Amino acid sequence: MPVAYVEDGLLKVGGQAIREFGVNTPELLIRWLNGPGSVSPRAPLVLTPTLQRDHLLRVLADNGIRFVRFAPFGNRPLTLRTAYLENRESFLGAFDSLVRSAESLKMALIPSLFFSATQIPPLFGENLPALADPQSRSYELVADITTTIVSRYKGSSAIGYWEYGNEMDGFLGIPSPKFSTAPDMGTPAAWTDDDSLPLEICHKLTKTFLENVRVIDSEPAYRNSPPRATASGWVGWRFKLSDRRDWNSSVEERFYDDATDTLTIHPYEGLGWHNRNYTGLMIYLSMLRSKAKLRRKPVIVGEFGVSTKYQVPQSNSDELFLSVLQQVARSHVQLALLWAVHVANSTDPDWNFGPHSRNQARWHMFLNAVRNIDAL
What does the mean pLDDT of the chain come to? Predict the structure, then answer.
């Protein structure tokens, strides 16, 4: 029963602290990324074929990979509206099927319920801070989704832990935040200053999420343990060590008021390889673990990887991918999730490193790290 919880500052499953790799398969439920039959304004709800989904889950399970993070509602207002507001029963039926498959394979799903901060407010003509306003329709829908999903699956052994969302802090302090836009999928043509999400709002959202989840899913995850863990993914790579900033204060400001049980970051540190302030990913993660330990929180690397397009003068992208993979393992974080392992027929050549990818070398690098994580 791979239900994760936090106890004594450690991420545990079944009474034991874990140390393992998992994967991101964002389209595990809805085909909202590239590939045949992906979502579009004409077909905003395209459920991932059961055979493709279950085949990937079996391959992962056979290779000792059990944690799989995904985006249940895709990442656009239209995908969420069509799935949850207009076709709720068929959507939940597909979700039920996914959970049953994961249960049979002893997998640990990580549903990132609000993967994009930009999905809900545009549905009601509201700005993004409405997510934290109890008088708004956005707030009401977040509470409704949380209640529905957590209530429905709180008794399942296939939910590894609950995640609020994904990188909502990506444009802190930036006027007219540069969140991606897709007007044909329900976003505004451009974001304005009124859509800025200051840090205090981000923290309010995680606090409200934790409170709502705990009302519903409050039973011990294992014997007399605390309940199932909660998380929310942060843009961790922005805080590289530098002689020009107080790193300790930055970490405390960004992460200490995150109300969830973990410190979950997405440190795409490979992108800073040639930056003079780059510290080395292993050092960065190790120091972050030390800071998180003071708050009795484990560090989870919610996403890591290197695009095949990314090149640096002193290394090709495959070598950089291997370096990042090894540094994540050697930092001794307890859980690290590769971005990304897609289902069959994905046409994303830059971020697909799974069994169906064109780049099989990276898939085998990753499997080797999965098998030998304790030796790295």
Answer: 90
